[in-house]
Specification:
- The chain is of the alpha+beta class.
- Helix content is about 50%, strand content about 15%.
- It is built from eleven helices and ten strands.
- The strands form three sheets. The chain has a four-stranded mixed beta sheet with strand order 1-4-5-8, with helices on one face. A four-stranded antiparallel beta sheet has the order 2-3-7-6, with no helix packed on it. Strands 9-10 form a two-stranded antiparallel ribbon.
- It is globular and about 80 Å long.
Length: about 375
């Protein structure tokens, strides 16, 4: 079945972005993997190509096209080229963080930050997770006490993607005692005294994606850097979570397709007992099952993208897409690695990196268990 939700503009955009990935990312990916961080040039090159902040108004440097299908194409092409780890930094910047600046900045703030976010001169991150808190955002302990025209921040955050490269950080802080009504979002800029970054955290996979632990020690941030109203941050974060989770689902189903295609080619060429291993019934059945499930997942993700564009995607549907596709990604990766045999366990084979990189997908953005809890509660249970 044809995927029929893309139009001609999307086809042309995909062609252009595919060339960008092959020219600006693929040749450098191995070096970035070894270094544990992408070069900032990837962001500026993406900005020069018009691939950052497509939803931002033209007056602030964007394309003025609020259409998540373009975001979907970007994430798909990163994954299909086998460089999804590098691409996750741009996807986070585009899909998860820029919307906060578009929706909650006043005019002065937009002028200050949006042009740089669209050009790639400013790299963004968002800091919600804290040591010992996990998925329960209502337990945030990092405090921001107002003193005149500044907030004084103390606390720490962990597992912050883009945390090393980031020039601007959307920081969730506690400004009141109430569990949810006491959270505020502040923008902390690089170089602010009292804003301290750890070294790049070492992870199982996604090595291109820099990940940091951040500390704040009497860090003074101007009240002018607050996004929206005080004590409304939790609700701002909740409003953006469906798009964040859909971003992960897009990544997951495309990554599953990448692993499957790698493996299909491999089993056609690799022989055992005098015949291609793909010709054995076990291999055929495994590949048939994976192909079917990937197609089912892709259809649901595409429908969710259309629903998001129409402002109809619910939190429950986004949770369904997120948990099901990420669990499928890990299942596909595991079966594909098995079909590669011993070679699948070697770093020289791309399937081993796909296997490592995919594992975190069921964890960040809300664990599979949290997604099921959201869905279960919506059923009145």
């Amino acid at each position: 079945m044809e995927r029929n939700h893309f139009e001609q503009d999307h086809v042309l955009f995909r062609d252009a972005f595919k060339k960008f990935v092959q020219a600006e990312v693929v040749p450098h990916n191995a070096i970035w993997e070894a270094n544990g961080i992408c070069d900032r040039s990837m962001f500026t090159a993406a900005g020069a190509g018009g691939f950052l902040g497509t939803q931002v108004a033209t007056e602030w440097g964007g394309a003025g096209v609020d259409d998540f299908r373009f975001n979907q194409i970007i994430m798909e092409e990163f994954e299909l080229a086998g460089v999804g780890s590098a691409g996750s930094g741009i996807a986070m910047h585009n899909d998860i963080i820029i919307p906060y600046f578009v929706e909650f900045c006043d005019e002065d703030q937009k002028q200050k930050w949006l042009p740089g976010l669209c050009s790639g001169d400013l790299i963004s991150a968002i800091a919600m997770s804290e040591p010992g808190v996990g998925s329960d955002l209502g337990r945030l302990a990092t405090t921001a006490k107002r003193e005149g025209d500044h907030y004084v921040i103390n606390g720490s955050k962990t597992f912050i993607s883009n945390g090393i490269n980031a020039d601007v950080l959307v920081l969730a802080v506690r400004t009141g005692p109430e569990r949810h009504k006491g959270i505020t979002l502040l923008v902390v800029e690089a170089g602010t005294p009292g804003f301290i970054r750890s070294s790049n955290l070492k992870k199982i996979g996604r090595h291109c994606q820099d990940t940091a632990e951040l500390s704040f020690v009497d860090c003074h941030v101007p009240v002018a850097n607050r996004l929206g109203s005080e004590n409304q941050g939790f609700y701002y974060m909740m409003s953006n979570l469906p798009q964040e989770r859909l971003n992960i689902a897009v990544s997951a189903i495309s990554a599953a397709r990448y692993s499957f295609d790698l493996t299909l080619d491999y089993v056609k060429e690799r022989e055992a007992f005098g015949q291609p291993i793909g010709s054995f019934q076990n291999s055929r059945f495994a590949l048939a099952e994976m192909e079917t499930e990937i197609r089912i997942g892709q259809e649901f993700v595409d429908r969710c993208v259309v629903a998001l564009n129409n402002n109809e995607l619910t939190a429950e549907e986004a949770a369904m897409a997120k948990w099901w596709t990420t669990e499928l990604q890990n299942k596909v990766n595991d079966r594909c690695l098995q079909l590669h045999g011993g070679y699948g366990y070697m770093d020289d084979y791309s399937i081993s990196r796909a296997w490592r990189d995919g594992r975190v997908q069921t964890i960040y953005g809300g664990t599979t268990e949290i997604m099921k809890e959201i869905i279960g509660r919506s059923l009145g249970l």
